[in-house]
Predict the structure.
Amino acid sequence: MNIPPSPRLKIIGVGNAWRGDDAVGLLVVRRLKAGQPPEVEIAECRGTVTAVREAWKDAAGVIVVDAVVSGGRPGSIYRFDAHGGGVPAQLSRSPSSHGWGVAEALALGQLFQELPPYLIIYGIEGQNFGPGQEVSQEVAAAIPEAVQRLRREIEVWLEREPS
């Protein structure tokens, strides 16, 4: 008898702690770590295409948190369902120093049909991405709201998945 793996939600914070606002995904998931049930795994990822795709591998549900650059107001929080249209092109410009990040991992996952069954992307608009810069005030101010939204997402996930 085949028994499916137990439902598992993985929250992945993406970023580089040494590049200002690019650290926001890491900072958000670090705040989430305390008090999470065992069904929820919290991970940090540097943000390369390979690292992101490997991080979400075999997860039943995934929420990715990353900085985005669209020209919007710094600190704005965006939410996208990867199976419901994905990330708009204007938000897919990666602040990554290597130019390939979450948006590209999403595109490759779609191409190879390797996306998790449930995949939500949270993007937080950044403005400072230089080496050694601190997180901007606007982005730092958005972190508590992003954490609160993610906690709600986790509650919804746990309520809908059988134990």
